[in-house]
Amino acid sequence: MNKRNKVKQLNRHVNHRRALINNMVTSLFEHESIESTLAKIKVIRSYAEKLITRAKRNLSDVPESVALHNKREVMKKIHDRDIVDKLFSEIAPRYKEVNGGYTRIYRLVNRASDNSEMGILELVNKKSKEEIKEIKKARKEALLKTKEEKNKTKSAKPKSETKKKDNNKK
Predict the structure, then answer these.
(1) Any idea which of 48-57, 94-103, 128-137 has the lowest mean pLDDT?
(2) Is the pTM of this model over 0.90?
(3) What is the DSSP string of 42-99?
(4) How many other C-beta atoms lie within 10 A of the C-beta of residue 164?
(5) Cα distance between residue 21 and residue 3, in whole Å
(6) Residue 73: Cβ-neighbour burial (10 angstroms; 0-12, 13-18, 19+)
């Protein structure tokens, strides 16, 4: 009997389950839509909504220490800084006026191999695929520009004169 145990086990050990949830939530915020089994999606939905709520706390006027604390709490679950920045700068402002219900689940046809229930978890106010591709392309271009600028500044620095070595050995 599993009394008073409200954690969905997902047939995994604790560390594997945590890693699975963290990775799937990261993918959800990156792509704004993921496809998986219904059991996993239902667990991930609650984690994702809690993280969005935590990010929304930084939208109002809060002290810097509280804003930093919120960001660090989210970084415990999402280890990719770019995704955390996206969550705080793009995703949270979309839901500024909404209290909960940031995600939706679509049921799909059962998987052919094992007949498990499949579904899609997506953000309610998600961007289209074209918009996401344009944003990624702009980020890559910005990264390339910064790398080129760093390379130019490195090459522009004068090289220190190398000491001449005496070839005369006694």
Answers:
(1) 128-137
(2) no
(3) HHHHHHHHHHHHHHHTTTS---HHHHHHHHHHHHHH---HHHHHHIIIIIHHHTTT--
(4) 6
(5) 23
(6) middle
